[in-house]
Amino acid sequence: MPSARAVVFDLDGTLIQSNIDYDEMRKRAMGALAAEGVPPEELGQSRRIWEIITGGERMLRELGMPPERCLQTISRINDELNAVELEALTTVEPTAHVHEALEALRRLGLRIGVATRGCNAYATRSLEMTGLTKYVDAMLARDDVEHPKPDPRHLLQVIADLGVHPKDVVFVGDTTTDMKTAADAGIAFIGFLRNGEWGRRLRDAGCRVLVDDLRAIVELVAGETSSTA
User: Fold this and answer.
1) pLDDT digit string (tens) for 167-211?
2) Which domain range does residue 60 map to?
3) 8-state DSSP, 134
4) pLDDT digit string, tens, across residues 125-164
5) Lowest CB count within 10 Å: 9, 40, 49, 137, which one?
6) Same domain for 33 and 13
7) Is residue 74 in a domain?
């Protein structure tokens, strides 16, 4: 791990745990695209939601949909996704030991950011409900940026908002999407072991640092940080 001045976290599956109905989100996204003439079989039910949306937007343009109408369609899809996320707020819980980990990072003088594909309303409320807001110096959600994860510009904008250099940042996430985002942004990555399946996917994708306890992140960055604080 490099010397760190800040740590940016993914939200769902990393800082918090919840029961968002991702199958319902896929269903709604594919249904809205199908209504505009995109063949569902061209999207693939097993694809990740961001792949469905980006692929669907590309196909809408290929079908000749005017750019303004295309943007309106994607906006309606995002409204549907937001609704599903907000329905899951009652299931939100803090990840084990998250408070201890973030408190320790703050004591080391590190800045803390969040880059999430959740919508802002869901992310903001989740942080409030779990008592994590006080630790977060910058947070950008899916609807806060023009190019959300896995586009590296999402992560880099959070880093810019934290006022630190990308080389001094570590990104922590639980999925291969997070890992790809970090790699494309040139940011050091720590995988969080949310469950066995995602742990396997991260390892298969080449994740070199994988932890199952958020407190271990403190240990990974503490040595270099303490020596330069």
Assistant:
1) 999 999 999 999 999 999 999 999 999 888 889 999 999 999 999
2) 22-88
3) G
4) 999 999 999 999 999 999 999 999 999 999 999 999 999 9
5) 40
6) no
7) yes
